[in-house]
Amino acid sequence: MTWADVLTEPTRKPSYPTRPTYTPPQVRLHNPNPIPSSYAHYTHPRFNSTQLGQPSSARGRGYGRRYSSTTPRWTAKSPTQIPFEGIHIADDTINNETNVGVGSASAINFDAYEDIPVEATGDNIPPPVAAFDDIDLGEGLNRNIRRCKYVKPTPVQRHAIPIAVAGRDLMACAQTGSGKTAAFCFPIICGVLGTPRSHFVDGTRVAYPLALILSPTRELSCQIHDEANKFAFKTGVRVVVAYGGTPISQQFRKLERGVDILVATPGRLVDMIERARVSLRKVRYLALDEADRMLDMGFEPQIRKIVQQMDMPPPGTRQTMLFSATFPNEIQRLASDFLSNYIFLAVGRVGSSTDLITQRVELVQEIDKRKHLIQLLRAQKANGNHGKHALTVVFVETKKGADILEHWLSMHGFPAIAIHGDKVQMERERALRSFKSGATPILVATDVAARGLDIPHVAHVINFDLPKDIDAYVHRIGRTGRAGKSGLATAFFSDKNQSLARALVELMQEANQEVPSWLFQYAESSTYGSTNRANKPGGSKFGGYDFRYGAQSGSDTSYHLSAHGNVESSVDSYAASPGAVCCSVPANSDYYAAASADSYETPASSEYFAVANDYNYSLPPSAECHAAATEDSYGSVVPSGWD
DNA sequence: AAAAAAT
Fold first, then answer.
1. Could you write out the three-class secondary structure of A7-24?
2. CATH 3.40.50.300 segments of chain A
3. pTM
4. Which of residues 570-599 of A touch strand B (CB under 7 A)?
5. How far is the CA of A399 from the C1' of B3 (A)?
6. How many Å is the Cα radius of gyration of chain A?
């Protein structure tokens, strides 16, 4: 089979590992567990089922039955419906349908959806909600949620929103693309709406944001700002973004017009605070996106400075929410300095889109990499897969390497553009635009593009240079396979990557991927206790576990290991899912049928959109919808009813 | 040792 075949190969029938039994919240809450109490939906390695407070046979479904298991096909909806893009949408174009589907028979198995494993630990955990309406988020916000066509909350939203609205601090593990941004934006906007706002309090030009959202890259801050703005549309809540590489004066002007929610990268924020143009004195909500990245070696001092050494109210007097796909123990420990009596939440996905990403590893020595890449891209092109729909991201290790490869690809007839931190911001944004539009369907990127960015139509992620860290790999390949589409991730493995072998093997096995035998050999010969997180205690590649449990028992180190080391089916299925490469789609074979029918060689079919759109939690508010509907540079088939 | 993030 050629590489190109892999792209066109019909999506593999996902094999579902044994799923843990769902525990209804009303039952879970009666759980007499010690503090921190737990409502693990699956049999946690630490707690056998008897500790869940009832015989396992009594743990059934029921919660999910509250939904009518119906699927209004989007074709049945008002033809005036268009994706919500903020400003230019008149209210009357919005279909006011409720969150609960009515009518026709359903192809969606809600029980499967309910099985998505969730672990929440901490004191007095607010129960999850089934619908956005179950929590009073305010009329304005509810209207925007409908505009975004969020039919019902994603798993992470169902759990995180009630926790956040209750004012609790939160540490949440959930993959980017699973509706994480909304999960912290909704409660923040809701909270800001309920807070008396008075800008320019003291007649100076100091801005006093009520909420601060920090992210590790400028582009990601932009993306969050756009989302938040959309959610805050016509609510009177003002969202401003601040990041480097662009004139600060313009950002000051925005601040002067009033700011409630400030989205920022750390450097620029510190600058603004030091110039006394921003004060954190009134911050009531603090959110860190990609929190593990924000607290790792490179960022930690800056974050500590912002959170602890400026005028930010201390934990307990502000609400702090940390979101990330991965939460290593060490990072949890650091993070707990910023939190007060927090709830730890890990949301996974059954039959996660890992199943939709085919992971391949090729043994390629450094010297052969470029040649190999060209061959790979040629095969892809020959197979008709490199048309307007298929975008490819090529990850490299260094900025210089990115430039070199961009040039090399262009020389060989592959329109490529590089993005990395040595480019000026204008170039970075231009590169991203050029890539998204399909003008240069190959993006050569450093890790600047590894996290959080939601780029529709990425069919293929190539790890030209593998990262040192398996987390980075998880984040990188998560750029594809989004919104229920199949994706391909190819890695060039060289002798240099030996230390990654073991973690890579484990990851691929958990995701039911074929592991080449030579890779097993690398894994075996690699030294135990290498730099891979998977080899270290606490090395949870997927989401994580509340480190407070480990601390309680005093066996902090072996606990996490056993969670992933044991190939116990229920645990394993959990491990495989939050891992998470990608979007949270309903785990349902019909869904997959529809989604897989739409692989990248064919334009998105309207049937695909029907399913994806109704189960909107696979789609970020409008990035995907909007792209599909308007970016005809892809030559997309635009579903009827969309402008 | 690299990338990111302020000027």
1. HHCCCCCCCCCCCCCCCC
2. 3-10+354-539+555-576, 180-347
3. 0.71
4. none
5. 8
6. 23
Question: Which residues in chain A, range 217-236, keep a C-beta under 7 Å from any nucleic strand B atom?
Answer: 217-219
C1' of B1 to CA of A358 (Å): 30
pLDDT digits (tens, 9 = 90+) for A348-366: 753 343 567 899 999 999 9
Residues for chain A: how many in total? Answer: 643
Q: Is the CB of A277 under 7 A from strand B?
A: no
Q: What is the pLDDT of residue A201?
A: 57
Look up the protein residue whose alpha carbon has the minimum distance to the C1' of B3: A447
Q: How far apart are CA A95 and CA A77, in angstroms?
A: 8
Q: How far apart are CA A348 and CA A383, in angstroms?
A: 35
Architecture of domain A3-10+354-539+555-576: 3-Layer(aba) Sandwich (3.40)
CB atoms within 10 A of CB A105: 7
pLDDT mean across residues, chain A: 70
**What CA–CA distances, in Å, run from A327 to A69, A173, A298, A324, A579?**
34, 7, 16, 7, 11
Alpha carbon A228 to its chain's center: 15
> What is the side-by-side order of every strand in the sheet holding A319-324?
A37-38, A118-122, A343-347, A170-173, A319-324, A285-288, A211-214, A261-264, A239-242
Q: Please, which residues have CB within 8 angstroms of residue A167's CB and are 6 or more apart in sequence?
A: A319
**Topology of A180-347 in CATH?**
Rossmann fold (3.40.50)
| Closest to A347 measured CA to CA, from A164, A180, A129, A548 | A180
